[in-house]
């Protein structure tokens, strides 16, 4: 493309220029569909392992035959070394382009390119071959059904989600109802915050929860949903004032933090066993046998000084200050 573009600048014949422009466009189109690497290089293999509790996921760059062999080896290792049985029903071999479910996420490898211009105006492609984390709409639906915050209705042969009041909460205070909704929304968002589609799924989840909140409070206060919403709406925020145990006025604000995707933390060291050193405390007899004053470090006539309670001590003497500093009721000292 670069060679043809340079040659095009020196050509003045319009018919030749049009022909070369078409050739450049065809070359560019072919470039965008040509892979920049061979994903199934016979000389390249890689394995990535991720575990949480007793669930694990293994990503393999290789053939399906190799995956089957690795699965057999894992089952053998678990049976012989860990005395555990690998579940054949739950342990699946899935093509990377198909969605594999793991810890509530759907994981797959993107098989399409996206194009955009960089800062210099050059068209570039990106996205193909990248690992994608998705949270499904069914996951959000099941969570809303678990909270009893949504009902499903059929309209024009389509399933429509509609917020519903949570009648079992109307016995709570309004500020406690808002706090409960905030906790549930933040819990869902924080768990799925690294999903690539959390913005769209999170906003759908948040919308249903928001209007379920309005309907719940409306039912509690015997108001319409609009009246309940406007009653506590201030500067486009849903704010509920209340009195704490000391009589001070506090405010409970409904969640409005959005559902922006968060970047996954990649430097986790959770599986590295810490090299911890435990230094035991010396017993009373060991401190006496050492024969060293813990104040002046002399070696003559060591006795054990003891107090009944540290709370009564003041830092008015060196030994009291030492005992308070080390939070110790005993001190090995010399008679002098």
UniProtKB/TrEMBL annotation:
Pfam families membership: AI2M-like_HNH, Intron_maturas2, RVT_1
Protein name per Swiss-Prot or TrEMBL: Reverse transcriptase domain-containing protein
Gene Ontology CC terms, in alphabetical order: mitochondrion
Biological-process GO terms, alphabetical: mRNA processing
InterPro entries: AI2M-like_HNH, DNA/RNA_pol_sf, Domain_X, GrpII_Intron_Splice-Mob/Def, RT_dom
Reverse transcriptase domain residues: 1-107
Highest classification ranks of the organism: unclassified sequences, metagenomes, organismal metagenomes
């Amino acid at each position: 493309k670069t060679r043809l573009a340079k040659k095009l600048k020196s050509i003045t014949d319009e018919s030749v220029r049009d022909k070369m422009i078409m050739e450049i466009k065809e070359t560019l189109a072919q470039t965008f569909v040509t892979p920049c690497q061979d994903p199934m290089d016979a000389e390249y293999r890689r394995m990535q392992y991720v575990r949480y509790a007793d669930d694990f996921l293994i990503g393999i760059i290789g053939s399906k035959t190799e995956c089957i062999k690795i699965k057999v080896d894992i089952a053998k290792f678990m049976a012989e070394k860990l005395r555990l049985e690998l579940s054949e029903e739950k342990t699946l071999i899935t093509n990377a382009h198909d969605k594999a479910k793991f810890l509530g996420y759907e994981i797959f490898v993107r098989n399409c390119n996206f194009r955009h211009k960089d800062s210099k105006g050059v068209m570039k492609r990106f996205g193909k071959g990248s690992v994608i984390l998705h949270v499904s709409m069914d996951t959000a639906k099941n969570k809303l059904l678990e909270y009893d915050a949504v009902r499903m209705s059929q309209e024009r042969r389509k399933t429509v989600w509609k917020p519903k009041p949570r009648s079992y909460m109307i016995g709570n205070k309004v500020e406690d109802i808002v706090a409960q909704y905030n906790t549930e929304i933040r819990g869902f968002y924080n768990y799925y915050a690294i999903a690539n589609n959390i913005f769209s799924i999170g906003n759908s989840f948040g919308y249903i929860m928001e209007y379920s909140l309005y309907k719940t409070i409306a039912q509690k206060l015997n108001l319409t949903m609009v009246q309940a919403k406007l009653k506590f709406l201030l500067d486009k925020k849903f704010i509920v004032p209340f009195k704490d145990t000391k009589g001070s006025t506090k405010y409970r604000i409904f969640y409005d933090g959005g559902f922006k995707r968060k970047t996954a933390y990649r430097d986790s060291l959770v599986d590295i066993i810490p090299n911890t050193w435990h230094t035991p405390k010396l017993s009373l007899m060991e401190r006496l046998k050492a024969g060293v004053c813990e104040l002046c470090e002399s070696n003559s006539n060591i006795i054990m000084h003891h107090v009944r309670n540290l709370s009564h001590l003041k830092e008015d003497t060196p030994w009291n200050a030492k005992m308070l500093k080390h939070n110790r009721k005993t001190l090995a000292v010399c008679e002098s």
